[in-house]
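The following block was generated as part of the benchmark described in Methods. Ligand: guanosine-5'-diphosphate.
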Amino acid sequence: SLSDRLGGVFDRLRGRGALTEADVRAAMREVRVALLEADVALPVARAFVDKITETAVGQNVLRSITPGQQVVKIVNDALVEMLGGGEGAATAELELGVTPPAVIMMVGLQGSGKTTTTAKIAKRLSGGQMGRDRKKVLMASLDVNRPNAQEQLATLGTQIEVATLPIIAGQQPVDIARRALQAAKLQGFDVLMLDTAGRLHVDAALMAEMQAVAEVADPAEILLVVDSLTGQDAVNVAQNFSDQVPLTGVVLTRMDGDARGGAALSMRAVTGKPIKFAGTGEKLDALEAFHAERVAGRILGMGDVVSLVERAAESIQVEDAERMAAKMAKGQFDMNDLRAQLAQMQRMGGLGALAGMIPGMKKAQNAVAGAGGDKVLVHMDAMIGSMTIKERNKPELINAKRKIRIAKGSGTTVQEVNKLLKMHQEMAGAMKKIKKMGGMKGMMAMLG
Ligand code: GDP
Ligand code: MG
């Protein structure tokens, strides 16, 4: 596995502080193989690895894990981001806020799952899922190539109780699209889904047909449906559609199969469009929001390593908290401690776990955020930097004259120095309170 291979690469590196370029390059050769095995297209894998190499070089290796594990975590995080964001990132929604009917056009190769996905989305919209009201949906098949393709959609429509456009034999795709649009307008449908014909391969005739339909129907969404098992070929398909039709998103089908999900990364890289859904089976409710984290895990095949690293990062925060707790037990909190806390706030984007646990810190965070965030942190650090060692250990020494000197030395104002001192006083006061409550352990026990 990738884990074993990376282990080999990094065995000789144990105990070193930061990842060097040579370390990272060695690891990235293995990562590249893993990406290709997951069916990420070669040029996409190459570009991705180059980008990650830049980010990873120089990063510190957390204690209790190996550099190889650290690299896996970096790669994983970058994958999640490229795939559209992690937990909490809004699932890409369908853009239906246009004057009705909102047209959703499905495009893709033959057999990719367009017709099935059309019915799946129609079922959701008409059933009032996707966090909105029930929509009145009309489906129309523009597939005049495959015998019975229009009947296939009509049958699905009956199953899910969604209307389909009556079939008129011999009509061409653009004319069917026109008729569907008119019917949807006249009969007050909210959404019109256009299921188009595919080909076995991308060709000029198919693209011309897609362009003509898009021109007539002016779709709010054009979704490219791609079989996740397509693998290396996915890039060519995506590139062709993306170049010639204004796509708004991608649906990956057959994610229930044994595909490792590399096509997802290729799709994102080539189209730049969000992956809006994942098809996870033949049944008409087998459609899910796309989970970037899950798919990243599948591509790397290293979910266990990723959570190991996350736990290691958490335990370092706990160590920091314990060091702090020891000081608190004595009721101490000087400028050096404040400086360490400010630095941590900055590293964690103002939301450190430790900071959240200390009553005074919460207030300090809010004050910092209210005053403009990072810039204030930089100023505060400069002010503490302009203090003498004595002043840092014993801030009570700082009188009016010293305040002027500190303000000058740090390029700030006496007012700002006063604010910093006030913040310190409040936090030192909170520390004393914590001591009375029985220290950090007592406080945590109280918080449950
Ligand atoms: P089209 O030619 O693009 O319209 O493809 P179809 O919608 O007709 O689908 C082709 C085949 O793929 C059908 O047998 C579907 O049941 C199957 N299919 C579509 N989506 C999925 C999926 O997410 N998972 C699985 N396992 N099968 C799917
Ligand atoms: Mg079809």
